[in-house]
């Protein structure tokens, strides 16, 4: 899976997934 | 809202009934940050509109290694702007829910 999960010590869960190219701003 | 280079959007449809909402945050313009963000991922998390503050979440993202500590304010502001928009929208739809 391309999802990564990070759990902070306070308990909050962060789920990281790739940003679709279309959502990234062209620079 | 000001363009901070960090984009925050709802990760699910908001019906205005739950205090907890799912948000998704990602870096649109790394040049606006002081430090280097961890990678190009979108970070999904839940936020309690009644109990939490954007500053709390931003600090937890720093501590989790997503952003450099010098960017805590810009991350917090990005979340705060989106939360303010969600709350403003909720105020407008509240009469329809009642």
Write a structural description.
The complex is a heterodimer of chains A (27) and B (98). Chain A contains no helices and two strands. Chain A has 27 residues and is mostly beta strands. Chain B is of the alpha+beta class and 98 residues long. Chain B is 37% helix and 21% strand. In chain B, helix 1 crosses helix 2. Chain B is elongated, with a radius of gyration of 14 Å. The chains are: A mainly beta (27), B alpha+beta (98). Chains A and B meet through strand 2 of A and strand 3 and helix 1 of B.
Furnish the topology, listing elements before pairings.
The complex is a heterodimer of chains A (27) and B (98).
Chain A: E1 4-7, E2 13-18
Chain B: E1 6-10, E2 20-27, E3 41-48, H1 54-63, H2 72-97
Helix pairs in contact in B: 1-2
Please tag this protein with its features.
heterodimer; A: 27 residues; mainly beta; two-stranded antiparallel ribbon; 2 strands; B: alpha+beta; 3-stranded antiparallel beta sheet
| Quaternary structure | heterodimer
Most extensive interface, chain pair and sizes: A-B, 17 and 20 residues
Given helix and strand content, the structural type of chain A is mainly beta
Q: Please report the distance between the alpha carbons of the first and last residues of chain A.
A: 29 Å
Mean pLDDT of chain A, nearest integer? 80
DSSP summary: helix tally of chain B = 2
Class from helix and strand fractions of chain B: alpha+beta
The level of helicity of chain A is under 10%
Please list the strands of the largest sheet of chain B in the order they lie side by side: 1-2-3
Number of separate strands of chain B: 3
Summarize the structure in short.
Chain A has 27 residues and is mainly β. Chain A has strands at residues 4-7, 13-18.
């Amino acid at each position: 899976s391309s999802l990564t999960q990070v759990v902070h010590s306070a308990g909050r869960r962060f789920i990281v997934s790739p940003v679709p190219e279309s959502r990234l701003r062209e620079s | 809202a000001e363009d901070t280079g960090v984009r925050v959007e709802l990760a699910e449809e908001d019906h205005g009934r739950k205090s907890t909402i799912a948000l998704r945050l990602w870096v649109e313009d790394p040049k606006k940050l002081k430090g280097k963000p961890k990678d190009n991922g979108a970070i999904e998390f839940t936020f309690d509109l009644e109990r939490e503050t954007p500053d709390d979440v931003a600090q937890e993202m720093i501590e989790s290694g997503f952003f450099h500590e010098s960017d805590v304010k810009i991350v917090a502001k990005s979340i705060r702007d989106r939360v303010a928009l969600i709350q403003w929208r909720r105020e407008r739809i509240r009469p329809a829910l009642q």
